[in-house]
Amino acid sequence: MSGSPEGRVTRIAYKTGPGPSVVEVSRNFETQLKKTGFERLHVCNTDECGGIPFTEALDVPPTPAMWVDGFDYRYIRASRRPVAARPMPRAHQHEQ
After folding, report:
1. Which domain does 29 fall in, by range?
2. Which of 14, 44, 70, 81: disulfide with 85, CB 3.0–4.6 Å?
3. What gap in Å lies between CA 16 and CA 93, rounded to an integer?
4. Domain assignment present for 32
5. CA distance 4 to 6
6. How many domains does the structure of the chain reveal?
7. Confidence of residue 35 (pLDDT cuts 50, 70, 90)
């Protein structure tokens, strides 16, 4: 992951209880990001990210406000495309 973000940065963390897995929750979140004009810049699961050292390097609220399970997480970094680059919603596209 290179470069510093420009513009507004929003960090979202979800706390889940018993039920959906980390992958299920994150895939649903990724789908919603894509629908609203975001593109994935980096996605990794626990082993791909590097485990606990990766979670310790993240800029997240401190415990107990947020606790990252260093053995089971999924990281998503996304950026919203500029307005001009976003595709027009299908309902508003016209035949030419």
Report:
1. 22-82
2. 81
3. 38
4. yes
5. 6
6. 1
7. very high
Residue type, 92: H
**DSSP-derived 3-state class of residue 38:** strand
Distances (CA, A) of 75 to 13, 18, 24, 84: 10, 20, 13, 28
The residues near 23 (Cβ < 8 Å, ≥ 6 apart) are: 45, 74
The whole-angstrom separation of Cα 66 and Cα 69 is 10
For residue range 79-93, list pLDDT tens digits in order: 886 655 545 555 444
- pLDDT, average across residues 33-48: 89
Position 14 in a domain: no
- Which structure tokens are listed for 62? 């401190």
Kindly state whether residue 91 falls inside one of the protein's structural domains: no
Is the predicted pLDDT of residue 95 greater than 50, yes or no? no
